[in-house]
Fold Glutathionylspermidine synthase family protein.
Amino acid sequence: MVKLNKIKPLKNEQLEELGFTWHTDSDNSKYISESLVQITTDEAQAYYNAANELYDMYVQAAEYVIENNLFFELGIPFNLIDAIKKSWENDVHWHIYGRFDLAGGIDEKPIKLLEFNADTPTSLFETALLQWALLKENAMDESKQFNSVYEAIQQNFKRVITLFDDTELFDKRYDGWKILFSSIYGNEEEEATTRLLQQIATDAGFNTGFEYLENVKFDENGIFDRDDNQYEYWFKLYPWEDIAVDEPELATILTNIMQNQSAIILNPAYTLLFQSKGMLKILYDLFPDSPYLLKTSFEPLEGVKHVEKSVFGREGANIKIFSADKKLLNQQDGPYGNYKKVYQEYVELNMDESGAKYQAGVFFAYEACGLSFRKGSEIMNNMSKFVGHFIA
């Protein structure tokens, strides 16, 4: 049973002062839960260990996919394969951050990987900032939290220069390189998240700029803002798979930019391998004895309750749950139905006393660095609630 502590919520005005404007869902309910999940030190350590081990497994699995040319199996668009290979071959293409979605981890339930949001994960703002604000508002010890997301990402930005664990080398190698940050105009959540990342990079010592994606200029010589200022790095909060499908010309230009070493793109193209839920099947093939993995196949599973997922689905869209005898039990519609499917063994999420379900999210930036939860029903969707935590 998930243990909850009722807290004094932050008022909408306080949230907006922090830059958090998406605090109310479309049904006028509050997006931020008025409770915190209580975990133990051992449970926090277990989440940390799981995410670190899973990331190492993803790296090995990605190498396996590239060596064996398994891009089709993962649903990877053909026009990004060269970009993926190029970014994988050179360490300068640094993975800044991602988020593991996990079941279990509370009340001695085993931790199980559901998926890895490696390219454009949501809830960064909430996890990195709001959890601290909630503890402070309730006069709780702010150190009683598994949450160093801000600091971890800051150090990881430095690693795009040092390429080493020792980020003290950053000052010796840093020579004023610039990062341009971009999101789509009109999406408040994505813009706030992108500007938070910009602030983190600025704190790390970079010169930074922001430009809406629509106004960024590209040619084979590099990436420029609307005023023709050139940037060595470009961070885009825009999924690689959407670039491949909706902006094929941009996919070609970005591949050429990488080939010409005119700019480095963050998160790198190879994170599309991690993002694909097809990797869940590759992981299970390579590490069938891992305690963190659920049985996964490209075909419906025989004799067990299982979940059908689109390899690039988001926010619970196009999820179907089947019984052991393949009867449809639950489903969520969505726009990702044309993508390749993967089938994963079903696992129960932790529940509170009211029956609400909880999914853990662990951010990863060189190492596991922060925990938060989503509260919802059997299929988590964009109406699920953000829940902070504290270590009792």
User: Anything to note?
Assistant: The chain has a mean pLDDT of 94. The longest strand covers residues 368-376.
